[in-house]
Amino acid sequence: MKLINVYGRCHRCQQPRAVFAADASWGQVPSPLCSPCWSKYADARASRSYVDFNDAFDNASDDELGAWIAPAKEAP
Length: 76
Hints:
By secondary structure, the protein is an alpha+beta fold. It has helices at 35-46, 53-59, 62-74; strands at residues 2-9, 16-21, 33-34. The chain has a 3-stranded antiparallel sheet with strand order 1-2-3. Strand 1 (2-9) and strand 2 (16-21) form a beta hairpin.
């Protein structure tokens, strides 16, 4: 985790916190991120998943995106 600014606003949650650069291997990820948001992306990538729809839309293949949103289509 590379500190890029001691204090700033997280691009994802908009909270003023210490922020870090997103890992380039994660694909299109908003940057800078606070520690909690950075951890969400790190955990999602480690489990070969996505944080939210926008993340899946930007970074998943068509098949992965379809599998990721299929449970939402089946929910009542």
